[in-house]
Amino acid sequence: MERTTLDLWVGAFVVAGMGALVLLAFKVGNLSTYNVSDTYQLQAYFTNIGGLKPTASVRSAGVLVGRVKDISLDTERYEAKVTMTIDKRYQFDQDTYAKVLTSGLLGEQYIGLSVGGDSEMLKPGDTIKHTQSAVILEDLIGKVINMIAEGSSKPQDANSKN
Amino acid sequence: MPVKKSIAGLGHRVVDAVWRIGYAARFFALTLLYSGVSFRRFRLTVKELYFTGVMSLIIILVAGAFVGMVLGLQGYETLKRYGSESALGTLVALSLVRELGPVLSAMLFAARAGSAMTAEIGLMKATEQLSAMELMAVNPIGRVVAPRFWAGVISMPLLSAMFSAMGVYGGYFVGVVVIGVDEGSFWSQMQSAVDFHHDVMNGVIKSFVFGVAVTIIAVFEGYDAPPTAEGVSGATTRTVVQSSLVILMLDFILTAFMFRGD
Prior knowledge:
The complex is a heterodimer of chains A (162) and B (262). With 162 residues, chain A is of the alpha/beta class. Helices cover 31% and strands 31% of the residues of chain A. Chain B is mostly helical and 262 residues long. Chain B has one domain.
């Protein structure tokens, strides 16, 4: 085979392979949501994070504003310390509320930020003071069962008094 | 004594196998050692890239598309029972990128290009072309084996990426275009579930490892083939069988290390 045709085919092959890889990275994978633009870090302490994992999304009003970078147990307070990287474009005030939420009934967990009314903004490295832990389905079921048990026992008490 | 004889036979086989593994390892080291030529004279490698990579394109692309379409059909049938058809994109993409892409394309590559490599090198040996090279002070490992090895190692990750990409579009075609799963949830659920570093890059690492394994088996079997018609045909069969088994075993080991615990 002629040298240039061979080179052309091999070149096209390599370009197609690289193209497939880029496609996998951006169209199939989540590389497009990795923000290479400037970010800053915020911390928050939760008494229970449920099934939150690193790289989980941080959303405010449903909009992706950052990602969970690191999760560790603070052995002084025995609470989960969650470090988040937030896009520089989005600033949050000191009164911001951080909640561990679930998308859908059994979906993946993420952190929701809802803004308070303070005029002071959170600076890079600050800690979010107001947090709400994940809703643990087992605890909830336990409470419901207790409530039902109490509810059914009360009328009996009332009957015995009569 | 039949017992003594059979035990001796077993021992002979074990010693033979260990000797062969050692010989293959030495051959692998020599291939890496004499790889300079395949980069200094990159033309040699480009020529082999054409025969291993470009010629395998059609089988990889067609197989990838059909595997993706089957995944789309079967995945839809199963997910429908749980009312989560929108997770079809996730299912198709994750199974392709993590497992099916690297493994199936490596197996097809072993059958399509590996067997050809073995037959070519085996016949070169049988027709004494390799000895002729040595007589002319040309190192046959550097001149014949190393360019083929590197061509295989370079083309394997590329082929596997193309396989996965074709598969995702095959799944898209069946799932979204034919069955009518919602297009937006197909892509967005896929993107939120497939992580670039954890899934895509690990798939690339897998296919790179498979590329090294398949091509080194192929060139070794060719180089080691008995110089007869029967010997070459046996070596070609061994290449396909051994590389398929090695791919599956390596895949288990790599998966155990990459995706455990989460």
